Amino acid sequence: MRRAIRFVLALVVGLALVTWVVLVVVQQTTRAWFEKDVNLRAQLAVSGARRALISHWQEEQRAGLQELLDEITHDERIMAAAACGADLTLLSRTREFPEQISCLELGMHVRPETDTSDAAWTSWTSEKSLPGGNVHVSAIPVIDRNQALGFMILVHDLGFVERREAKTRLFLLLAFGFLALAASAVTVVAARVSWRSWSNDLRRLLRGGSQRPEFQPLLRDVRELVERIVAEKDGDREGGAWTPQRLKQTLNRYLRGEKVVVVANREPYIHERSKNGEIRIVHPASGLVTAIEPIMRACSGVWIAHGSGSADRETADRHGRIRVPPGEESYLIRRVWLSPEEEKGYYFGFANEGLWPLCHVAHTRPIFRSDDWKHYRAVNQKFADAVCDEVDSKDPIVLVQDYHFALAPRLIRERLPRATVIMFWHIPWPNSERYGICPWRNELLEGMLGASILGFHTQYHCNNFVESIDRYLEARIDREQNAVVQRGRSTLVRPYPISLEWPIRWLKKVPSVDECRTSVFRELNLPQDALLGVGVDRLDYTKGVEERLLAVERLLERFPSFRKRFTFVQLAAPSRTVIDRYRQLNESIEQVAARINERFGHGEYRPVVMLRAHHEPPTVFRYYRAADLCYVSSLHDGMNLVAKEFVAAREDERGVLVLSQFTGAARELTEALIVNPYDLDEASSALATALRMSTEEQHERMRSMRSFVSEFNVYRWAGRMLVDAARLRSRDRLTGRLADHITAVVGAS
Ligand code: ADQ
């Protein structure tokens, strides 16, 4: 409404201006016409009476002339008349002739001073202002046979001209006023009608009322865009907490509830046959599984993984499928069967003896064998084929996990060009020089660029990846978008720091902090006033377990007050034990632990307790809760979820985290005591500081870290990737449609 009023006001002001200009022009033109008309009349009047005028001009008695003048003034426009002689004296005049007009004054104009000849006499007109109003005066010479007898003065009333002008002005004003009103009314009505009908049309179209097929794709895009804007607004309003429900809603809103397909080497539920013949379910010690499993529970879909358990075949159907989690059955595991040679070459060989040490700065030399590479390629193809078996649309969302599947994104894209492939690399990415030692560096990069989105934990790893592309491939790097563009296709390269589900479901099964402390102390045979440190890892050289034990040894050397009081318990899940380097690690850790216990043990007291086994999550969390500190000493780690698990376990806001600066987690959990695990003095000092830290400081640090992990949880991690994927999908759909449209138009023309 306000807009309409503003429009009408502008229109009226505009028209008023135009009217004023028109009025001025019309007034000047009509005035010129009237003057011309009056002059003509005066000329006619004099020339019509000329003969009579000449005959009476010379008479002594001026009665005849007077009569003639009276007759001339019978014309209603001629107010008065006078006759002036050649010597510019008044000969005769009518009664109304104004005294202000004299023969002498006008004669100066009629008889030019410079030329006194009779032929030079000429008519003259002017306007004169008198007390009764303006008059028009015409002076016209009376010539008889080339002899100037004098001149006639005719005075015209201009009142009628002014009356006419006023009438014209009024008429024009009325006409333009009416025009302004009519134009405004018509414009406003037309605008309202067309807006309403346009918005009604749009509304009808958006509701799906249009039957015209050519509008349908466009409509779908508009509808998606509107929904996304609304969803983003809602998302902003919802703020902070990312939950499984919110992740599910995000999937529904942004990706129309698409089924998510995960490709990962490790499966979340491994069926193992025990020695007593029973089948048990094992939850693997894997950071990847810890993070991705809650996502699958929230989103459902299919998890394609290597069926590695001894009872996996008999628990799955003939396609290798099994519904999990047991009792809930919310998603599917599709097991891929690998021969021992395939597992050896692809998993132990290329992935774990080649890529794993290549990507971690932990001083273990990578080993690249062409046979392993062959298996790696074949297994990647096998998993890509399994993806194609499991999807139920042409544009599925596929989450490819980790360094086991660097080739899979391109292989999937070759068969499903419209798929949205998100690849997440859970371990660090080395600098380009280091990466360059891999004999198949280009093939790996090409494979990864099949993904639509490539995620790493940190920006630093993204930068290293982009540098590797820059150095080894022909591709354009779009630094503004953080993308790599190759053959017209782009891959976004983004940091998505991984995290945990919040709250952690296992904690429901774990007793209170006090109960955990009591039961763990009992199991370890520790006195009430003992101090306990904990480490939880797969036995991997990147985790710095050996350096950790050395730091404990240094602590006891430097701070004797902790001897017989401090115990460090290491939960160590054997891992990749078929690889030599892992066997060496096991042995060396055993030796270091034995040496420390020998040096500082006393009676029942052993400073280092090695619990070398895979522990189910509730046990792991019991230890986190029982401990005074947790030491994460990785030599290099993408993120490290143990650090976050310790924080999540401590609902009592106690306990101190000592964390290696070489973990991705150290960039987020800045309230931990951050150390260089190679620097044993620094690390042992940090352990001492942790054991002496006041309860208040523990609370403060732990509260801040808990609030961070709760907010930046794994649902947010997945949500951000899926939202980015959804944006890409709608962009690709729009550009794809545009390209189709252009092709169709070009084809038709
Ligand atoms: P991982 O190298 O497996 O993960 P991490 O993130 O520390 O490392 O996760 C280990 C997981 O295994 C944790 O959930 C932990 O509880 C569990 N675990 C460890 N020891 C165990 C034991 N003895 N018994 C039972 N469970 C045990 C990779 C990268 C990491 C990255 C994750 C996720 O190397 O840097 O954080 O992926 O992206």
Write up what this structure looks like.
The protein has 749 residues and is of the alpha/beta class. Among the domains are: 49-157, Beta-Lactamase; 255-337 and 380-495, Rossmann fold (3-Layer(aba) Sandwich); 524-712, Glycogen Phosphorylase B (Rossmann fold), CATH 3.40.50. Helices cover 51% and strands 17% of the residues. It has 23 helices and 23 strands. The strands form 4 sheets. A 10-stranded mixed sheet has the order 10-11-9-6-12-13-14-17-16-15, sandwiched between helices. The chain has a 6-stranded parallel sheet with strand order 20-19-18-21-22-23, with helices on both faces. Strands 2-1-5-4-3 form a 5-stranded antiparallel sheet, sandwiched between helices. The longest helix is centred in the N-terminal third of the chain and has 48 residues, at 159-206. 40% of the residues are buried. It binds adenosine-5'-diphosphate-glucose. Residues 285-288, 290-291, 426-427, 498, 536-538, 571-573, 614-615, 620, 637-642, 645 line the site of adenosine-5'-diphosphate-glucose.
